[in-house]
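Session log. Operator J.P. requested a structure for one protein chain; no other inputs attached. Running the standard single-chain path with token output.
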Amino acid sequence: YKKNKDRLGEISINLKSIEDIADLVKRTYSNVDVVSNRVESIVLKLGSGLTKTVKELTVGLEERVFDVDLNSEENLKILPEYIRPLAKGMGNLGDYLDKKSLELYNEAEKINEFTKKRQEFGEIKSFEDFGEFMLTLFSEQGVNTAITASTGGLGLFAIAAGATGNKFTAMDLELEKGRYNPRTDEFDKIKISPMQYYGAGIGYGFAEYVTEKVALDNYKLGVRGFRKALDIAGGKYSLKAMSFKGALKTYGVSVGREGSSEWVANLMQNGLDKWVLENKEVGIWDGGNEAFWSGALMSGLGFGAPALAAAGYRAVTPSKGWNKINENTK
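Structure written below.
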């Protein structure tokens, strides 16, 4: 008894471990809930980013560049009296947009806090891990593709503007709370000039536009390839010889383009953080491997797989009697 008591007394409680356990317990692990939460979170983030972009490229631009607060009576006195009501109204609008944007952003973060942690590509050790990685990838990318595919160019600009706004919000939080320094485990106070602020934000949006444009092109290519393989365009089915080699070549090119575009976008965003925002903790190659494979897998297993499968089926289907069947289906 005494021996066991002494050993029990030697056991130290690791507060960090308790925090980790509490964090794991509060999250949901149901695949249905995970998908639903991922979709809801990215939609909220998009709404937050769009709202923030509207604010920053209108009211915020004037306030940051000229270092004025349009809700400050002292600053309003500088303006001609007949402009003051309009300026104050713009200031109130800016505050409302800021508040609304932050509410949506925080709600999205709250959802993520109660959802199973994302499976990192570099930590995949089993088929189950790979499945979880793909589940998150398809859930989140599916929202962007649905928006861009249904609205075309307008959707691409919306996704890019959302990424810009979310970067604006992230910089606001760093200005308010400081930038985390892993070497000291503390938050360092930083300064971000208007040029750095808008350069980084718009740069993030541009990188997102590039990769989503490639994703949209690959989606359209996949749809066209699937229709071509089955020849169902216009609602008509016709049996034709299908070159599996050609379909495979198109598939490989699409996978490479999507992976490369994600890698380049990640590289651009790392560069903005490292050199424009002067964040020394960011490496230019950070996340590049995961970015490439995320794009390649999304294109390979999402956009291109149905067309490749259809082409493969057509390639091995016996052609005997095709003419007669085609004649009967006219």
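Operator note: Residues 36 and 176 are 31 Å apart (CA to CA).
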